[in-house]
């Protein structure tokens, strides 16, 4: 029969969704109808998480209950710790995160009951709650430092920062500006409709596997340099450029590379104008740098953006800075090594993955994902015995 050929689904809607709206030409991003700029300014990450998952802003009581639930599921089974100890000393924390989240499915066999609303709700709570713990453990492991258990008296972000930073038994108090900045970054990264990792979660989840296995596939997708690895690549690129004077030469090499070499942190499949998240991030960066001191790579980034936005190559292709262009600079100023950047993306995106996974599970039109292909291989031919082959 007639079949559409649409590699990488550039032109195919894979689902109906009521969660996130993007207008790529106008640079609009909305969660459940609320503009990202308003959420970033007025809301908090757990409130946004509630919104994305439940479809409406919580009442004060609902937010309190949700916060209580998430806060009291932050601990992981001691054997998860032992599992993580098995990784090589130099294991990439993102690889540890993907494997450990997949391993969670063996700790919660009840997660297989995906048609049961209550079971779904508890798995989603566990995923959102345990992600910072596993992320922090993966960081501590890679640094050769002892794991720090969650502190349920702290906020979601402050607890994460404490598990990352605490030395010995001294309490770690995150700087309020940095705590707020990370909370805003988490809001900006919470969902982004049918991106590569979310599509992976939906695809794997469509087989009706448990959500830990599905989310682990999403983490795998997010590990790639074209997706969640982009902010790490931006920093490596800025370091490689090294000095403002080297920018024109670098831009020239990108343009002559025939798509081989890219300006990392630029361009987006959907946004053909300025990424609205990048605008918010630029403001957050200013606040963070006031506390941490300016990241010396910022000047290179600003000048690179200025030159690229005037260059015909980038203008013609509608290539603008995306969310990752400045986020890495902030993470680095906050003391995170580049290996942690995709992990810092995965923590908040877990909310989007869970919201999208549950929406898919509840959708009566959803079937197992099973695309077709355009076959371009050999026509039928007969087997040739080994001794007849030359
Ligand atoms: N630098 C230089 N040229 C570029 C870039 C770039 N960053 N991005 C796209 N182009 C060129 C590309 O070579 C092509 O040129 P031509 O028409 O001459 O062949 C044209 O622009 C269209 O690009 P495309 O590859 O068809 O666009 P796409 O929608 O397939 O790719 C993208 C989107 C984000 C993968 C790509 O822009 C890219 O690789 N950017 C750099 C990596 C990056 O910053 N990724 C983060 C994305 S945002 C956060 C996230 O979702 O994880």
UniProtKB/TrEMBL annotation:
Reaction catalyzed: oxaloacetate + acetyl-CoA + H2O = citrate + CoA + H(+)
UniProt organism field: Stigmatella aurantiaca (strain DW4/3-1)
Family: Belongs to the citrate synthase family.
Active-site residues, as the UniProt record annotates them: 268, 324
InterPro entries from the UniProt entry: Citrate_synth-like_lrg_a-sub, Citrate_synth-like_sm_a-sub, Citrate_synthase, Citrate_synthase_AS, Citrate_synthase_bac-typ, Citrate_synthase_sf, Citrate_synthase_typ-I
One BP annotation, GO: tricarboxylic acid cycle
Keywords on record: Acyltransferase, Transferase, Tricarboxylic acid cycle
Domain of life of the source: Bacteria
Gene3D superfamilies to which the protein is assigned, alphabetical: Citrate Synthase, domain 1 (1.10.580.10), Cytochrome P450-Terp, domain 2 (1.10.230.10)
Designated name of the protein: Citrate synthase
Molecular functions per Gene Ontology: citrate synthase activity
Gene: gltA
């Amino acid at each position: 029969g007639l079949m559409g050929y649409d590699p990488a689904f550039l032109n195919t809607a894979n689902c109906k969704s009521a969660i996130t709206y993007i207008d790529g030409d106008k640079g609009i991003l909305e969660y459940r109808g609320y503009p990202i700029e308003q959420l970033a300014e007025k809301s908090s990450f757990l409130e946004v998480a509630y919104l994305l998952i439940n479809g409406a802003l919580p009442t004060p009581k609902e937010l309190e209950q949700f916060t209580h639930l998430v806060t009291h599921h932050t601990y992981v089974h001691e054997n998860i710790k032992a599992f993580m100890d098995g990784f090589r000393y130099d294991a990439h924390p993102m690889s540890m995160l993907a494997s450990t989240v997949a391993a969670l499915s063996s700790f919660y066999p009840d997660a297989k009951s995906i048609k049961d609303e209550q079971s779904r709700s508890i798995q989603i709570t566990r995923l959102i709650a345990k992600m910072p713990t596993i992320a922090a453990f993966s960081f501590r492991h890679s640094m050769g430092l002892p794991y720090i258990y969650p502190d349920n008296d702290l906020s979601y972000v402050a607890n994460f920062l404490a598990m990352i930073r605490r030395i010995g038994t001294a309490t770690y108090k995150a700087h309020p500006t940095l705590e707020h900045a990370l909370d805003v970054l988490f809001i900006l990264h919470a969902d982004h409709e049918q991106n590569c990792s979310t599509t992976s979660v939906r695809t794997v989840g469509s087989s009706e596997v448990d959500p830990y296995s599905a989310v682990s596939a999403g983490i795998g997708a997010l590990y790639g340099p074209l997706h969640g690895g982009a902010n790490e690549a931006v920093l490596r690129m800025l370091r490689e450029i090294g000095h403002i004077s080297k920018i024109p030469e670098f831009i020239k090499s990108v343009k002559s590379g025939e798509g081989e070499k890219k300006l990392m942190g630029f361009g987006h499949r959907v946004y053909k104008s300025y990424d609205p998240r990048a605008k918010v991030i630029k403001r957050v960066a200013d606040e963070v740098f006031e506390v941490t001191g300016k990241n010396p790579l910022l000047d290179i980034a600003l000048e690179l953006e200025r030159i690229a936005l005037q260059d015909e190559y980038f203008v013609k292709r509608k290539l603008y800075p995306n969310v990752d262009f400045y986020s890495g600079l902030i993470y680095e100023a906050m003391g995170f090594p580049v290996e942690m950047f995709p992990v810092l993306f995965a923590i908040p995106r877990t909310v989007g993955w869970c919201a999208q996974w549950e929406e898919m599970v509840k959708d009566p039109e959803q079937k197992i994902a099973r695309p077709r292909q355009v076959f371009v291989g050999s026509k039928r031919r007969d087997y040739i015995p080994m001794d007849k082959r030359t």
